[in-house]
Design goal:
Layout (H helix, E strand, L loop, with lengths): L1 E4 L16 H12 L3 E5 L4 E6 L9
Antiparallel strand pairs: 1-3, 2-3
């Protein structure tokens, strides 16, 4: 899943490992629960790319 915008972007001082906002903390917790990964890009706005594996048994 990718979420992005073309605004001014998130400050380069903000690290995903040291989050202060409740929203980003909740996203991080959910990604951990799903054994996922998050990637942050700060080029021409902000882009969050979230990846996780889908277990076949869950699709039944």
């Amino acid at each position: 899943m990718t979420v992005s915008d073309n605004g001014k972007g998130i400050s380069k001082d903000i690290e995903l490992e040291d989050l202060d906002t409740l929203g980003l903390q909740l996203v991080s917790i959910l990604i951990d629960q799903l054994d996922g990964n998050i990637e942050l890009k700060r080029d021409q706005g902000t882009e969050f790319r979230i990846t996780f594996d889908i277990v076949q048994d869950c699709l039944r």
